[in-house]
Each structure stands twice: as C-alpha cells, then as structure tokens.
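Hi support team,

I submitted a single chain yesterday and got back a structure, but I'm not sure I'm reading the token output correctly. Could someone confirm the output below corresponds to the sequence I sent? I've pasted both exactly as they appear in my results page.

Thanks,
R.
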Amino acid sequence: ELIGDAFDTLRISVGRVLSSEFCRNVETAELMDFGPPIEELPELTYFVYDEPNRCANTYALLEETPVAGTNTALIGQSGFVCPTLSA
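Hi R., thanks for writing in. Yes, this is the structure output for that exact sequence:
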C-alpha cells in the first residue's frame, strides 16, 4: 500500500500494471492499487515458462513506450540477473 500511496502523493500516473503470475506478485500489485487492471504475464513469471529467454522478454517489456503521461509498473520477484544483456 505504501508504494501506491507514494505514487499518489507524487502524482505518478500508472497506465498499465504488468505482474508475474505468482500469487504473491499479483497480491503486491493489488495492494499498490494503481488503478488499471493487472495483466499477469508469463514473461515475468520466474522459472516457469521460457526461462532461457526471460531476461530478453522482460527487457522487451521495459522497452515498450507507455501511453503518454503515464508509466508502466512491472511487478516481479528477485532473481533477475542478465549478465549478457547488461548495459
């Protein structure tokens, strides 16, 4: 809740909420209460689907331009290390 409250206080607009399919991540996204519906994506679900390409898939999500005047929130879990794609 505190993160969502901080976003409200700072007037940070969220136009899209992307979450791992894991219950704890969806619950976290719900508690943030950003407003838009939560989109559960396999690309953010750690060790379940396409693990060899998870980093590239996540970077592709990060590269998507949000709707003007908004931000996209990505909710996932730790373990995101991509040494081959680091800047």
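A quick pointer for reading it: The chain is about 30% helix and 15% strand. Let us know if anything else looks off.

Best,
Support desk
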